[in-house]
From TrEMBL:
Residues 32-42 have a biased composition (Acidic residues). The gene is Fbxo31. GO terms for biological process: DNA damage response; protein ubiquitination; SCF-dependent proteasomal ubiquitin-dependent protein catabolic process. Gene3D superfamilies: 1.20.1280.50. It is found in: Cytoplasm. Belongs to the FBXO31 family. SMART domains: FBOX (SM00256). It comes from the Eukaryota. InterPro entries: F-box-like_dom_sf, F-box_dom, FBXO31/39. Keywords: Cell cycle, Cytoplasm, DNA damage, Ubl conjugation pathway. GO terms for cellular component: cytoplasm; SCF ubiquitin ligase complex. Residues 14-52, 394-446 are annotated as: Disordered. PROSITE patterns: FBOX. This is FBX31 protein.
Amino acid sequence: MAVCARLCGVGPARGCRRRGAAREQRRGAADSEPDTDTDPEEAGGGGGVTEDDEVAERIEGGRPLPPAIEAAPAGRAPLSLLELPPELLVQIFGSLPGTDLPSLARVCTTFRRILRTDTIWRRRCREEYGVCENLRKLEITGVSCRDVYAKLLHRYRHILGLWQPDIGPYGGLLNVVVDGLFIIGWMYLPPHDPHVDDPMRFKPLFRIHLMERKCATVECMYGHKGPHNGHIQIVKKDEFSTKCNQTDHHRMSGGRQEEFRTWLREEWGRTLEDIFHEHMQELILMKFIYTSQYDNCLTYRRIYLPPSSPDDLIQPGLFKGTYGSHGLEIVMLSFHGRKAKGTKITGDPNIPAGQQTVEIDLAHPLQLPDIENLRDFSELSRIVLEVQEQVRREEQEREQQQQQEEEQHSQQAACQPASPLGGEGVEGEETAAGAEGTTQDKAPASQPFVLPMGVISRNEDYPRTCRICFYGTGLIAGHGFTSPERTPGVFVLFDDDRFGFIWLELKSFSLYSRIKVSFQNAQAPSREAFDEMLKNIQSLAT
């Protein structure tokens, strides 16, 4: 009763409301003194079970509270928030972002007391981070919802989302999410080669949780001996690193041979004896030796999902694709006006993660021959090379025209001010976009498709019909990304979730299938931020 009275601004008993008014005048100045705390962890004051927790229980349990002395007389609207009932203030404060509550706690001690109510923080955990667990169970361990919000969710909010680990040319895809009362970093792995349509695999690399009220605990999940002591350091805004403090948990009793056999079963779903191709065996051994060096410390850089537009050919996003002896790799498809780009999120010693593996020219669709002639590789090659020559001539004409316009512009600038209107360039872009749309409208809904004779495909179960094809280029290079060059190819759109690419020079076919996972906290804040991210990961790969 005494605590409830203090919160509501009345005396210690129901009969003291008259003398409480005089005391409120003396306490008015003290109640309105601001606090200087800004951390959400401190927004509700100290922890533990206090008299103010009884107030929270009465508010949450619906038991009536004594009316406040500041309550507005009947017929008059409240002039201040302090005149509102505590139950209503709890609802109001609970609807505010958690990052605003520390500032609210500095207004006065009454607000600070109300912000100790766990109902407020339970709602913020649910609405901001999707925590749907029964947070009342935390009372057994002495951890409050405010502790979960301030010491776990708010503190590590910057690492939520998608990340690419720095593992040399191999890269990777890490998704950090709030999972119940944990923050878990899941490493996403493509399905076993060549089953490109199978769902993604994933395994935990680390987790963070609140064992006690003091601070959150970071645990490394690598290896087969269970969670053990780890550390996370946020290097800068879009970069953080993890470190394992007990690497002996990563070792197996059978030594490196047992570790390799276990890794091979997880990575490829087979044994080394099942892989007859000698070059493929070398690539697998090389990857195991290289990636094993990063089992104790890793650095991650943020990546964004590509922004979408109603004019995009299909929904951009992440796809898994076949890459010959390298197995399945993760590629990000994004659209940039008249171009579409496929950027590697995972890579290999030839084309490392971060490089642009394919580029599609949406202004140059290809009309495939009938199904019989399509089987002839030389016929398809002839069509593609003709378009390649056309693209080369158009680029030369654009460069010459641009050079002439610059010369004319410089000559006119000497005689008269330049016109501020840039209508010709805009009109040209609109015309190109309109031509692209017209070509797609004229294209049949579907047409028969078959790979030409001699083209190698890891997956023979590719679609036998396609929507439309475009001219494109693919990036090839020697081991160690030596002598890279872009070579002509064919982009084949099968449906909304699958596409392919025919590498003419390699006489091989890559099939790509969409990764159907709803990633949270992965949207780019702007198109400029996404483009900058692409440049950064490509420069790091180079």
